[in-house]
């Protein structure tokens, strides 16, 4: 794993959260992007080498809507950057981690992504990500 690529934060209202985080971090989001397959709309802020990703649900059945309903707004996942996501998925499966997808899928911000189930990572939803174009 190379670095913490981003921390994902589940929010109810993206516009309000953008304002708050713009003030908190003293910088504007560098992009907003909807990921239809995940039922989310996102915004990204740079913080040094890492990022903050704000996520708001666009559908009631999205992971973010369920998360907020059950646990409220807050830190939803931590994403690690990896050089080769296919190799890392295989390595972690062999180590006994439960992968939520065993093939990378397309995420926001030009990334291939995969998730580990929070039950296999001590209650933390872990994302692996790799740039699609590198
Ligand atoms: N962090 C920690 N624990 C979490 C969690 C999270 N983000 N989301 C759910 N859980 C916990 C639940 O609280 C529950 O715990 P208990 O059994 O102790 O109550 C357990 O995991 C199972 O949860 P569930 O409600 O039965 O299952 P869900 O239908 O909510 O699914 C999960 C949970 C993680 C499998 C699902 O959210 C998922 O597949 N996530 C991966 C995809 C995703 O999160 N996409 C959105 C982000 C996309 C992006 O970054 O672009």
TrEMBL record:
Domain VOC, first and last residues per copy: 3-131
Transmembrane segments: none
Entry-linked Gene3D superfamilies: 2,3-Dihydroxybiphenyl 1,2-Dioxygenase, domain 1
Signal sequence extent: none
The UniProt record lists the keyword Cell membrane: no
Superkingdom of origin organism: Bacteria
Keyword terms, alphabetized: Metal-binding
SUPFAM superfamilies in the cross-refs: Glyoxalase/Bleomycin resistance protein/Dihydroxybiphenyl dioxygenase (SSF54593)
InterPro entries in the record: Glyas_Bleomycin-R_OHBP_Dase (IPR029068), MeMalonyl-CoA_epimerase (IPR017515), MMCE/EMCE_epimerase (IPR051785), VOC_core (IPR037523)
Membership in a protein family: Belongs to the methylmalonyl-CoA epimerase family.
Protein name as annotated: Methylmalonyl-CoA epimerase
Organism: Mesonia mobilis
Biological classification of the source: Bacteria, Pseudomonadati, Bacteroidota, Flavobacteriia, Flavobacteriales
